[in-house]
UniProtKB/TrEMBL annotation:
Catalyzed reactions: L-seryl-[protein] + ATP = O-phospho-L-seryl-[protein] + ADP + H(+); L-threonyl-[protein] + ATP = O-phospho-L-threonyl-[protein] + ADP + H(+)
Protein name in the entry: non-specific serine/threonine protein kinase
EC number(s) per entry: 2.7.11.1
Organism field: Amphora coffeiformis
Enzyme class at the top of the EC tree: transferase
GO biological process: signal transduction
Domain Protein kinase residues, every copy: 1-300
Amino acid sequence: HSATTTSSVAVTTDPSSPHQPGVVGVVVVAVKELSKAVVTDYLLGDGSENPFVELCRLQEYRQESLVLDCWEALEDRDSLYFVSPRAVGGNLYDLVFGSPNLQVPLSAKRIHNIFVQLLHVLAFLERRNIHHRDLSPDNFVLNEHGRIQVMDFALSMRIPVVDGQRTLIRHVGSFGTHAYLAPELVCSATAFDGVAADLWSVMVILYNLQTRQKLYDQPLPSDGSFRHFVWHQKLVSREFNEFILHAASQQKGAERSSLYRRAVAHLNWSADVRELLGHTLRPNVRTRWTLAQVMESNYVRNDPTTS
């Protein structure tokens, strides 16, 4: 339904004199194409993305440093086109999973810096009463200054507010990237907390940054990694991870490599990381830390090079 391409556009350096010959430069932009057909699907109840919702969000958040800017919106008969500055630093997916050597961990300082920026994005969304619905590494980019920006609001929803208080969102289906969905979004819950669901996605991204591995494919007990590490809350259990380490050492191939590297990473986490992930990646939303509690956690407040 959507595709992003990179294009070069020639511009004059003196926009105040468009009819005068000027120095011509090149601006590299990203052009995102969204099919208008998805709007029909959305209105019929068969779709999830709505490009017009994304356009409204981008217009509303112009000049917000935490949101990838939209310089121009164009359309033809079949599609909408959003023109944005190219993210010269790539996206978080490239950073976490794109390296040819995934066994080399990211530095603790860089992980901490990125995570704190992700929390600032969550705080911004909470202030605006927006549930993004698809906070995956693909939808966070790094600008020329290395700062995190969020993009792709086509799935986003407004969080209902009654008498000044944020309320639950009526469950309308499981949309977004499954490896980052909160478990309550794939169960039979009739309503959910949009801020808590977005926070869950960011905590899974923190896991990615810490291990350079996926946590799970589906947030369901039928998914082995989810069942053991999340459903049974064994993620920060030293005894369980030592068992996994021993079991993985008896296997061969990529599966052994993935399990082995994850168990090693889990066992090497600092006390602050174990505390944070242990209190946030819980299947029961009522027992999870809130965004405010995460902001005040030891991991966020402490210098990772000394913890």
